[in-house]
Design goal:
Helix content: 55-70%
Strand order of the largest sheet: 1-2
Distance between the termini: 69 Å
Length: 128
């Protein structure tokens, strides 16, 4: 039984004429190794492409703020709220909200959690 495989300018059958036909699989091992290497290279390239494309979308969903004040202000504007409305809902003065946004002072933990609930986000997102 001859397999039709071309190696170094000769067909596999020509190599096997002088060999015992019980060892035909030894001639196929290099071909299988090359095929396996080729498949692994293709898989690595596809994985890298998928990773690089996913990284672009992942970075778009993450928004980093310079400080807590910027986070409070941008979320307040996103929710179409004024400083007076935020202050009224939290039970603090408008000047306190202004100080938080300008970075002069920071809200207490209770007020930070209340701000997050008011904006409809998790408190951790304000601190990122």
């Amino acid at each position: 039984m001859y397999l039709i495989v071309f190696i170094h300018g000769k067909w596999l059958g020509e190599y096997m004429d002088g060999f015992n036909t019980n060892y035909w699989f030894l001639a196929i091992i290099p071909i299988l190794f090359i095929a396996l290497c080729f498949v692994l290279i293709i898989l690595v390239i596809c994985s890298l492409i998928k990773y690089l494309r996913g990284n672009q979308f992942r970075n778009k969903n993450i928004q980093f703020y310079k400080n807590l004040g910027d986070a409070i202000k941008s979320n307040r504007i996103r929710c179409n709220m004024t400083q007076e409305l935020v202050a009224e809902r939290l039970g603090v003065s408008r000047q306190a909200v202004s100080k938080w946004e300008n970075g002069i002072s920071d809200p207490s933990t209770a007020n930070l959690i209340a701000l997050a609930k008011l904006f409809g986000i998790e408190p951790e997102k304000l601190l990122k």
